[in-house]
């Protein structure tokens, strides 16, 4: 597959250059700058810490450092739909040259972790979570990986498998069976050979104007860059990111905690209740912060301009707020209901009052 990646990248350079200058009306001298910036974009991998299966996995691995990969591959997850699993098998067998998947596992099978890739996204627009807020089923934490994992990364323009990491997500992999053309190895690239991926990505925007906007955003982005938000065409004209093109990432090999730079987590869960302050949120928090240098970046929206950064589970400012959120969850349960937007807004305000949002 890597030889296909190199060849496809070289072959599409002329077409990419022509599209860049003639259609997007951009300076040819900026194209290599864009390609370089694209290859340095953060890589994020969703992990559905709100699900029972993953929460149990986090509880186990938080206290048992047995070398198990930190991120479970989709191929090893129980409960993936038949269509979804068929699509995983097609991509991994035909595009990546892996062995055919066996029977669907009935429980999380850590033994298959090293043999299967995990799926994420190239976070070119610095979003707080994988997709827009309207895709509630993907309102789940993500792990942002370090640059050391780049040699093990494969890229694809457009979503394929990543949505299957979310429990009950209805992404493209659950909607229909993929064709063999969608698993053509020539469509995949690497960080070193991605001209064809970049070309397809730019062509996927609803308008050339939005493609130009994305180019400028990507070129100018740095670690302090906040996501596009209301008032920005990249937000407004993509229906809150719902029509935003994506670059999917497959990462091969085990993922250790030292491979992870930070975690991003939403204050709420896919179903709407508080994740911050919940039992499953606590399992995730203990797991994410157990290693030295562990960081969780909390936010309340894909496009959030302000975040709360937690670097220590015993932080004297976060502790009382976590207790406050847990009490809100208990109080709601006592009267037979769950938490929701009202309680989440209360925690957002509490974070602001504690000067933790910035």
Structure description:
By secondary structure, the protein is an alpha+beta fold. It has helices at residues 2-11, 13-23, 31-39, 52-63, 82-95, 172-175, 195-203, 208-220, 233-236, 279-289, 318-334, 341-353; strands at residues 43-46, 118-122, 142-145, 153-157, 188-189, 247-251, 260-266, 296-299, 308-310. A nine-stranded mixed β-sheet has the order 5-4-6-2-1-3-7-8-9. Strand 8 and strand 9 form a beta hairpin. Helix 4 (52-63) packs parallel to helix 10 (279-289) and helix 11 (318-334) runs antiparallel to helix 12 (341-353). The longest helix has 17 residues, at 318-334. The chain is globular, with a radius of gyration of 20 Å. The mean pLDDT is 93.
| Distance linking N and C termini | 43 Å
Low-confidence stretches: none
How do the helices and strands follow one another from N- to C-terminus?
HHHEHHEEEHEHHHEEHEEHH
Output the number of helix runs.
12
Q: Percent range for helical residues?
A: 25-40%
Question: Looking at the structure, what is the overall shape?
Answer: globular
Number of strands: 9
**What Rg is obtained from the alpha carbons, in whole angstroms?**
20 Å
Instruction: Give the strand content.
Output: 5-15%
Integer average pLDDT: 93
Major sheet: order of its strands? 5-4-6-2-1-3-7-8-9
Class by alpha and beta content: alpha+beta
Largest sheet: 9 strands, mixed
Provide the fold topology:
Layout: H1 2-11, H2 13-23, H3 31-39, E1 43-46, H4 52-63, H5 82-95, E2 118-122, E3 142-145, E4 153-157, H6 172-175, E5 188-189, H7 195-203, H8 208-220, H9 233-236, E6 247-251, E7 260-266, H10 279-289, E8 296-299, E9 308-310, H11 318-334, H12 341-353
Helix pairs in contact: 2-7, 3-8, 4-10, 11-12
């Amino acid at each position: 597959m890597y030889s296909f990646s190199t060849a496809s990248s070289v072959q599409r350079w002329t077409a990419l250059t022509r599209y860049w200058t003639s259609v997007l009306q951009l300076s040819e001298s900026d194209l290599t700058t864009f390609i370089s910036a694209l290859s340095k974009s953060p890589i994020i991998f969703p992990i559905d810490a709100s699900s029972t299966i993953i929460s149990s996995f986090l509880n186990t691995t938080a206290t048992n450092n047995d070398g198990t990969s930190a991120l479970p591959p989709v191929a090893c997850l129980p409960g993936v739909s038949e269509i979804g699993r068929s699509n995983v098998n097609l991509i991994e067998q035909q595009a990546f040259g892996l062995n055919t998947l066996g029977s669907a596992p009935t429980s999380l099978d850590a033994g298959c972790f090293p043999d299967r890739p995990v799926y994420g996204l190239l976070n070119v627009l610095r979003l707080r979570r994988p997709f827009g807020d309207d895709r509630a089923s993907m309102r789940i934490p993500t792990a942002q990986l370090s640059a050391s994992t780049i040699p093990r990364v494969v890229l694809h323009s457009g979503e394929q498998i990543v949505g299957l990491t979310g429990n009950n997500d209805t992404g493209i992999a659950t909607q229909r069976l993929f064709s063999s053309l969608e698993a053509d190895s020539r469509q995949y690239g690497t960080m070193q050979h991605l001209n064809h991926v970049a070309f397809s990505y730019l062509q996927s925007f609803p308008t050339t104007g939005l493609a130009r906007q994305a180019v400028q955003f990507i070129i100018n982005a740095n670690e302090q860059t906040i996501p596009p938000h209301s008032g920005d065409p990249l937000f407004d004209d993509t229906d809150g990111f719902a029509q935003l093109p994506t670059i999917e990432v497959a990462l091969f090999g085990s993922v250790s905690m030292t491979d992870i730079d930070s975690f991003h987590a939403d204050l709420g869960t896919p179903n709407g209740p508080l994740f911050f302050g919940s039992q499953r949120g606590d399992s995730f928090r203990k797991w994410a912060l157990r290693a030295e240098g562990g960081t969780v970046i909390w936010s309340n929206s894909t496009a959030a301009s302000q975040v709360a950064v937690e670097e220590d589970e015993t932080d004297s400012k976060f502790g009382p707020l976590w207790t406050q959120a847990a009490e809100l969850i208990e109080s709601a349960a006592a009267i037979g209901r769950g938490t929701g937007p009202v309680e989440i807004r209360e925690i957002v305000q509490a974070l602001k009052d504690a000067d933790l949002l910035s």
